[in-house]
């Protein structure tokens, strides 16, 4: 049976090593390394290490095929994917609408550059503005970082140079986007960065009022801080940001790279509060797995980029735009936004109902969920979940981030919750054993000591 034919089978929640019960490793992707005794996963990982730059480190698992909310590794092991390529695969893997749109477009017209007009590009821009419900202009790029880089340049074109962002925010790794990113560890190796950017505490409207003045070009915010551990601001925060920026003539930029295109149950997360920004940036889920970014600008901000001020060879590539149109069509046709609200509620309530001693809080919006742990155990929980055929993300040391495809079924949500609870219990048991061993033989040195001490009160 092929991997695709097995796509309908459910993972075993408490199994170890494989999720589909296929421990023989006879699926896809056996190579020379596997034939000589090395596993197919190890062989493909070794090839990565031999040729790829080390900026990502070594990825934890090689994947070779996906279908819906499931993926398979090079040895045929099946996983329920609750991270979706960092919130990218909103329709899951190999969705027929995306596959069909890409195949049809590449057969008709693949690439024309920004020197010519392609119909899918125009249609996608029209569609995004219609979803926003406002007149404006669109610039297409290839990623979220590039979408925010364009926003940075729009801010500079106001004639002001000061910008305000938030601590913990993430806006990308290109130099302008990195300057906006409020994470010093990512910034430090590349100082000095483009200025003048001030960072204020996220969710603090008073801090915004103090920082945003008539000299401020733009204020950039995420409606929910995704990479920082799915941090949700207090009610009214985005409305306060809109009022403050309107009063000072400052552009409000909402980074919806992770929250946009249905992730929270709205086309744009800020629509939940009725907030209209001057600039909205999109990427991730928009392409359904293909690389695209979009910068939407409204009002005066829409007129600031003029010929020669910005560009990209692949801006508005017809194939990627066709994929994005298929994503939007499918979300609208299949009532996916309503599905996200229901599935997100089911997932959050299911995790809360575990009442697990290692879980301090479950937070998020729609199908962007953060599981806050009692201690810095996210990497260990991530691995324990993977051992049970569940893919999650250790966003920060004490938070697991979940961003499954928006089409995830109730059955898959329930399967995930059961397996994730088992993973939590395994980690809890391991930590309790380590605490006991430390009490008998002296506490070990290293990063786990803090987690062990902090967990000793929660693992009785």
Summarize the structure.
With 460 residues, the protein is α/β, with parallel strands linked by helices. The protein has helices spanning 32-35, 40-51, 84-87, 96-108, 119-132, 144-156, 175-180, 184-187, 205-211, 237-248, 318-333, 336-353, 378-387, 410-441, 448-455; strands spanning 63-67, 70-73, 78-81, 136-141, 162-166, 197-200, 216-221, 251-255, 279-282, 293-298, 359-365, 368-373, 390-391, 393-396, 399-402.
Can you describe what's shown?
The structure is a single chain. The model is unreliable at 1-35 and 443-460 (pLDDT under 50). This protein has helices at 32-35, 40-51, 84-87, 96-108, 119-132, 144-156, 175-180, 184-187, 205-211, 237-248, 318-333, 336-353, 378-387, 410-441, 448-455; strands at 63-67, 70-73, 78-81, 136-141, 162-166, 197-200, 216-221, 251-255, 279-282, 293-298, 359-365, 368-373, 390-391, 393-396, 399-402. Helix content is 38%, strand content 16%. With 460 residues, the chain is an alpha/beta fold. The chain is built from 15 helices and 15 strands. The chain has a 7-stranded mixed beta sheet with strand order 4-10-9-8-7-5-6, sandwiched between helices. The protein has a 4-stranded mixed beta sheet with strand order 1-2-3-13.
Kindly state the percentage of residues in helix. Answer: 25-40%
- Which ranges are low-confidence, i.e. pLDDT below 50, for 5 or more consecutive residues? 1-35, 443-460
**Secondary-structure class:** alpha/beta
Report the average pLDDT across residues: 90
Count of DSSP strands: 15
């Amino acid at each position: 049976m092929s991997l695709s034919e097995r796509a309908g089978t459910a993972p075993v929640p408490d199994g170890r090593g494989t999720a589909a019960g296929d421990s023989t490793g006879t699926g896809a992707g056996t190579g020379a390394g596997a034939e000589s005794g090395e596993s197919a996963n190890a062989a493909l990982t070794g090839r990565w290490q031999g040729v790829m730059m080390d900026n990502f480190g070594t990825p934890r698992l090689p994947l070779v095929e996906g279908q819906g909310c499931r993926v398979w590794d090079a040895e045929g092991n099946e996983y329920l994917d609750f991270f979706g390529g960092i919130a990218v695969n909103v329709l899951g893997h190999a969705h027929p609408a995306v596959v069909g749109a890409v195949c049809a477009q590449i057969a008709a017209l693949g690439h024309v550059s920004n020197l010519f007009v392609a119909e899918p590009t125009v249609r996608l821009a029209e569609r995004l503005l219609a979803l926003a419900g406002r007149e404006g202009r669109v610039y297409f790029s290839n990623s979220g970082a590039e979408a925010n880089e364009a926003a940075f340049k729009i801010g500079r074109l106001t004639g002001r140079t000061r910008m305000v962002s938030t601590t913990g925010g993430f806006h990308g790794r290109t130099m302008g986007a990195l300057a906006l990113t409020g994470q010093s560890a990512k910034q430090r190796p590349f100082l000095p960065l483009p200025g003048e950017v001030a960072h204020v505490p996220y969710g603090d409207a008073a801090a915004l009022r103090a920082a945003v003045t008539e000299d401020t070009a733009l204020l950039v915010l995420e409606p929910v801080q995704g990479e920082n551990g799915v941090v949700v601001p207090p009610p009214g925060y985005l409305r306060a940001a809109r009022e403050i920026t309107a009063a000072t003539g400052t552009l409000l930029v909402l980074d919806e790279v992770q929250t946009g295109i249905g992730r929270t149950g709205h086309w744009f997360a800020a629509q939940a509060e009725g907030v209209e920004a001057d600039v909205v940036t999109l990427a991730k889920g928009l392409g359904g797995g293909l690389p695209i970014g979009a910068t939407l600008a409204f009002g005066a901000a829409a007129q600031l980029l003029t010929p020669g001020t910005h560009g990209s060879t692949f801006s508005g590539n017809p194939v990627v735009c066709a994929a994005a149109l298929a994503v939007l069509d499918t979300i609208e046709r299949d009532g996916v936004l309503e599905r996200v609200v229901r599935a997100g509620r089911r997932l959050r309530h299911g995790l809360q109902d575990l009442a697990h001693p290692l879980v301090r809080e479950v937070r998020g919006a729609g199908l962007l969920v953060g599981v806050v742990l009692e201690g810095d155990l996210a990497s260990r929980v991530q691995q324990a979940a993977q051992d049970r055929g569940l893919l999650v993300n250790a966003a920060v040391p004490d938070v697991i981030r979940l961003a499954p495809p928006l089409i995830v079924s109730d059955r898959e949500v329930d399967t995930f919750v059961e397996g994730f609870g088992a993973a939590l219990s395994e980690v809890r048991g391991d930590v309790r054993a380590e605490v006991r061993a430390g009490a008998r033989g002296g506490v070990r040195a290293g990063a786990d000591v803090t987690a062990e001490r902090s967990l000793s009160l929660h693992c009785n």
